[in-house]
Design a protein that fits this description.
The protein is an all-alpha fold and 68 residues long. The chain has helices at 8-17, 27-46.
């Protein structure tokens, strides 16, 4: 992952390429959000989980009477 931040112009171009044209006043806002997400992902990738097993998720059955 690159450490170079996305510019407003690049954000607009990528959004358009994805079929999501942006209003011009949103370009900087979208770029800032994308840069924040990249920073969070970069931090998560640096974490060493070592031998930590994956978490499990169980949903216990609930009694329902079928009415809404």
């Amino acid at each position: 992952m690159s450490d170079v931040e996305l510019t407003a112009t690049e954000a607009a171009r990528w959004a358009l390429r994805a079929g999501l044209p942006l209003e011009s006043e949103r370009h900087a806002e979208v770029a800032a959000t994308a840069n924040h997400i990249h920073a969070v992902v970069r931090t998560l990738r640096e974490l060493d989980f070592g031998e930590t097993p994956p978490a499990t998720h169980t949903v216990e059955a609930e009694d329902t009477d079928g009415s809404l």
